[in-house]
Amino acid sequence: MNDKGKLPEWNKKQIEEQKKINKKLTFRAGLALIITIAVIIVAIIVGFASCDRNSTPQKPANNASVSAIEKYEKIKFSDNNASSINKIYKSKNTGKLIVKVDNVDASSDTSASNSFGQLTDELQSVGSYDAAKKGVIFYGNGAYTDETGKEVDELSFAIFFTQADVNSLDSNYSDYVGSGNYDSLFKSSDAYYLYEPFAQPNKLLNKMSLNKDKATITDSLKINIK
User: Fold this and answer.
1) Which residue, 87, 80, 90, is CA-closest to 119?
2) Three-state secondary structure call for residue 137
3) Element (DSSP H or E) covering residue 157
4) 5 pLDDT more than 80
5) Which of 27, 30, 114, 129 has the CB geometry, 3.0–4.6 Å to 82, for a possible disulfide?
């Protein structure tokens, strides 16, 4: 008879084998956990590498497609309530890059400063791509009441710069425009158009001519303006 408390020889061997199996399983589980953590860390690093500090995707290369430019620029300027990019496309008629913007308000000096200061930032960013080599036009529409009292959608303003002139603008020019000198943006442009009801309430825009070389605007946007 075996002494009390002693295990049979076969039972001891079984326990030792089980311990070896458990060690192998623990090692494999640990290795799998390390690999999983490593994959997560790499994914986080790649994510940070593809975004800037504001979670905006990296700016596309200068030769980027118009769709890639639109995607990036819309995100980049989406957090500002002044001027926001609605869409970007190329004029089939002239090859110029066209940018439609929203939220441009010229009804007061402050709102116009904010709107056109932001638009200047957008202009300098969008105008740097190869797609803008023939120049870039920014424009905005608005709701107005015609002589019959009917609400109509009209071109509020449009502004054109050649790429050379965009590149010649000072890096701090948007600060200058945004500090109340927004009329400078139109005066520095190669062509512009102002709809009278849009410009009339503004103390600076209402002193300006309503257009300069408007054919450049109409040829690209394919619209008739007065």
Assistant:
1) 80
2) strand
3) strand 151-161
4) no
5) 114
Nearest to 181 by CA among 98, 117, 102: 117
Instruction: Note the pLDDT of residue 18.
Output: 64
What are the tens digits of pLDDT across the range 185-215?
999 999 999 999 999 999 999 999 999 998 9
Cβ burial 49-64 (10 Å sphere, 16+ → b, else e): eeeeeeeeeebbeeeb
Query: Residue type for 71, please?
Result: K
Q: Tokens 């791509």 appear where?
A: 129
Helices 109-126 & 66-76 angle (0-180, nearest 10): 140
Supply the DSSP symbol for 101.
E
pTM: 0.75
**What mean pLDDT, rounded, does the chain reach?**
86
> By C-alpha distance, which of 92, 93, 75 is closest to 84?
75
Query: For the residues 95-110, what does the mean pLDDT come to?
Result: 94
Query: What is the C-alpha separation between 47 and 195, in angstroms, rounded?
Result: 45
